[in-house]
Amino acid sequence: MDAPKPLTSPLAPKVQEVLDSIRPALQMDGGDCDLVDVSPDGVVTVHMKGACGGCPSSSMTLTMGIEKRIKAKVPEIQRVVAV
Description:
GMP Synthetase, Chain A, domain 3; alpha+beta
């Protein structure tokens, strides 16, 4: 298995801070998410894990929860996608 590539975006620490603040709520429902990438054009890629990985509501969690919080704290971000 390949090691994850290092996050080089200057926005990555800010995005990670927001994800860390959301993480307890995700974990209460048996899920979690990892930051995969922050592209130069402002697209954040996350990996939904645990219960969030297969949950039918994960797209709502992604857009209404995670994306909304990230964009509020890091306005340079345009959107959040899951892989």
